[in-house]
Amino acid sequence: MQTDVASGNIDGVGTTLKPFQFRGRFLTALALRLSTAPDARFYEMLADRLEKTPNFFTDAPVIIDLEQSQAAVTPEALTELVADLRRRELAVFGLQGGDEALRAAAAGLGLISVTGGRDAPLRGALPSSEQKRPQRVFQQERPPMPEAQPAPAPEPEPAPIPQRVAPENKIVTMPVRSGQTVIADKGDLTVVGPVSSGAELFAAGNIHVYGRMRGRAFAGIDGDENARIFCQSLDAELLAIAGLYRTSDSLGADVRHKMVQIYLEDERLIVAPFG
Amino acid sequence: MSKVIVVTSGKGGVGKTTSSAAISAGLASRGHRTVVIDFDVGLRNLDMIMGCERRVVFDFINVIQGDAKLNQALIRDRRLDNLYVLPTSQTRDKDALTQEGVEKVLNELREEFDYIICDSPAGIERGAQLAMYYADEAVVVTNPEVSSVRDSDRMLGLLSSKTARAERGEEDQIKSHLLLTRFDPKRSGDGEMMSVEDVLEILAIPLLGVIPESPAVLRASNVGVPVILNEKSRAATAYEEAVARLDGEDLPMKIEGEKVPGLMSRLFGRSA
């Protein structure tokens, strides 16, 4: 008699597959925060911003954040904004903030009302040079509960003070063994010693390995496409920069056991020997 | 100052128990008070290799659970009077081992013995983790083939992170030694097996010894005598030298088949 582990049935006869499951899910979305009512200049700047990185915004899930501007924005302006964004292939799905009339208008446009969430660094986008950053990342941590939160404080947030944060680089001077994982989530990772097959290295920045590199290396884990991997002797199982990867199979004999650097060029992972 | 040495490998069947028996017999014949503990709860093997399976009354688990005194469970070897075996239970499983219990038994043994050899089970589960947790040194037993080497590498990672010494801090790390077993110089020379150099390059730890593949090892197991105490063989000699190095002697490494195969096979060709 067979045991069906997946569904917990032990009779083994006529095993049933569960038709659905509820699963918790985190979702990363863009939040378009308005500081004023959208006017002609707003649309001009928005178009300009979206053109700079067209691929990044296509089909991106977006919520509209009116917490700072709900008094200035009318339901009609909101309708016009949503239509404009959808024309630009942004997947607008939610509204944060806004009074009752705005929420009613949003519901009519098929938007859900969301509360909570917090800003996170934006992956993959060009660093914004404008003063106004039109987007932020929003994390929906649980299903929205209507009226779950009191009305947001009316005073605007103080302007963020620009901070210079030193990168937190990491140096490992022992062999990295099979099954071990080393993470430098805020900077570069340098390993002085061998990295075994089955070991994993992660870094927000560059990865350097002074020793035989047989494991897996993931550089630019936050989306930094300028991150590089440097190996004294390449024999890696997998190399990845900003999510683009190559496996051992695709590394030619001409680079194996060589001193190499790996970098991204036109969305391709280049493995270039030194000298 | 007593030393706790774990004999471990990750992979099964590479020669942990054979090596534990040979190393403990070797240390005892060098005059050290030595005990060897079987951590492979449920798969009692060490007492058979040591030839004392008919004399087991109480075991390691009985002592941990307070059902027997340590002295009741220790079996004195019939050949060497400073060698003792602490057998394990055949009927329990590894969950019967507790960290506190293992620590208590080891502390008691440290009072009486120079060397405490812990024969680890295969795998990386509870039994293996507790066998290594209180160790001062480790003998990593490896065969010259890729899966064994990878598993040994994994064990070295655990030794440097999941042990009492690792948790206490940087300075006082476990000293790990490589014991390469079942080495066949001919097959290594033909490229069928990894060379000593290949293995050392991956594992990057000091080499304690290279034990040649030898029918003498199986014969010794079958009669329940540690290899080192049985007939004169190449394997016995290699174990003796490894034990001398473990005991702090600085012996030059002689590896068959590496560099001077002709001379070595002539020197050792007659034995075994």
Q: How would you characterize the overall build of this protein?
A:
The complex is a heterodimer of chains A (275) and B (272). By secondary structure, chain A is α/β, with parallel strands linked by helices. Chain A has helices at residues 40-52, 54-57, 75-87, 100-108, and strands at residues 28-33, 61-65, 91-96, 112-114, 135-139, 170-172, 181-184, 189-192, 200-203, 207-213, 216-219, 229-234, 238-241, 244-247, 260-265, 268-273. In chain A, strands 6-8-10-12-15-16 form a six-stranded mixed beta sheet, with no helix packed on it. A five-stranded mixed beta sheet of chain A has the order 4-3-2-1-5, with helices on one face. In chain A, strand 15 and strand 16 form a beta hairpin. In chain A, helix 3 (75-87) runs parallel beside helix 4. Residues 1-15 and 123-153 of chain A have low confidence and may be disordered. Chain B has helices at 16-29, 46-49, 60-64, 70-73, 99-112, 126-133, 146-159, 164-168, 185-189, 196-203, 215-223, 234-246, 261-268; strands spanning 3-8, 34-38, 75-76, 83-86, 115-119, 137-142, 175-183, 207-212. With 272 residues, chain B is α/β, with parallel strands linked by helices. Residues 260-272 of chain B have low confidence and may be disordered. Chain B contains 13 helices and eight strands. Chain B has an eight-stranded mixed beta sheet with strand order 3-4-2-5-1-6-7-8, with helices on both faces. The chains are: A alpha/beta (275), B alpha/beta (272). The A-B interface holds A 174-180, 193-194, 196-199, 212, 214 and B 150-151, 153-154, 156-158, 160-161, 201-202, 204. Chain A: Residues 122-163 are annotated as: Disordered. Chain A: Cell division inhibitor that blocks the formation of polar Z ring septums. Rapidly oscillates between the poles of the cell to destabilize FtsZ filaments that have formed before they mature into polar Z rings. Prevents FtsZ polymerization. Chain A: Belongs to the MinC family.
